[in-house]
Amino acid sequence: MKNFKRIIIWTLIPVVIELIGLLCLNLFYFNGDANFSIKKVDISSKQAEHKIKVKIPEYAEQIKVASSGNYISYYDGQSLHVVDTIKNDEKEVNLENELSYYTWNLDTDNMFIAEKTSTGGNSSNLKFESYDAKRDEIYPLKNLDKNQDLSILLPDDSYEVKRVAFSGPSNVVYVMSLGNEETNGRIYRIDVMIRMNLVNFGRCRLGNIAAVNDENGDEIIYEDRTYNRIRTGRGRVIATGENAMHYLLNTDENNNIYIGNGENNKVNKIFISNLDVDKRKIYTLPSYVNKNNIYITRDRKIYVDNPEAGEVKELTTGKVTKYDGKLISLYEYGIVSQDGNKIVNSLF
User: Fold this and answer.
1) CA 177, CA 120: separation in Å to the nearest integer?
2) Run of H or E including 238
3) CB within 8 Å of 12: residues ≥ 6 apart
4) 127 assigned to some structural domain
5) Over the stretch 136-178, which tens digit does the pLDDT of each residue have?
6) Is the model more confident about 5 or about 101?
7) Is 87 a member of any domain?
8) Which of 86, 156, 235, 247 is least surrounded by CB atoms within 10 angstroms?
9) 0.85 exceeded by pTM
10) Which positions, given as ranges, span the membrane (predicted)?
């Protein structure tokens, strides 16, 4: 009997201690007078809406902006400079050879760089590299099958990279190079394995290029300036330009192709075609606009720049965004412009 009582007592002791502990918590932490304020902190939004204000030298050229707005870049004639717009920290990207072309990738803070190297005589190579802005690292693009640096032997020294188009989901890059003879332009396709092949297209004077991903894979879209056509790499004619000049403006993430209709590099209509759907949408502008003042974003928005007023208007909603100075580029959250020797932003 005594042993049984001891067992009961020793069993009750920890229960009592636990009850006392809970009572203390109730009195000092969970009492009715406590007030809780819960505030949602959207970290991604804070980063997205940061103010951009960085200084660049007067001689800066080829100023470009990463889609995130986290980095701006410029060329000083010898090297690329990359500025972190959040930390206002500047890095120099040392190039071993002459810069032919560079651009920021679609959705990452990486650069695609084409350098030109002399092979002696009147010949040159194009060498391709990628620069990771977050890691501050540059590395050559290598063919993953052969483990060799990717390069192109150019027909002659006059050739330069003029435009680069990214296909998006398929990670395919199209590179257009032109020489003195514009009808001898070339388009190269670089796939995800860093394998390269020459795109076959009709002999013509090339204009702008863009890329889409349809149900059959990636596809190059290009301006045929000789015959005033917008064509695909597979030979399909998207626009004939029978009554006016057609200008390839851009593509979006839904395989839509945006074509300006007008003359003398100005357009007053925008046609939207799709490779998968036999349907066309038309926007009529109130007046002629320089084709270079029309911006098509990946998320299907059309922006028209009015440099004289310092404002950009979104075509479908009519929303206007003001900016200071000269427009440099649109990015995911707004406009980047150059105001004197400063690069600043204006949020949509």
Assistant:
1) 20
2) strand 237-239
3) none
4) yes
5) 999 999 988 888 899 999 988 899 999 999 998 888 999 999 9
6) 101
7) no
8) 235
9) no
10) 7-30
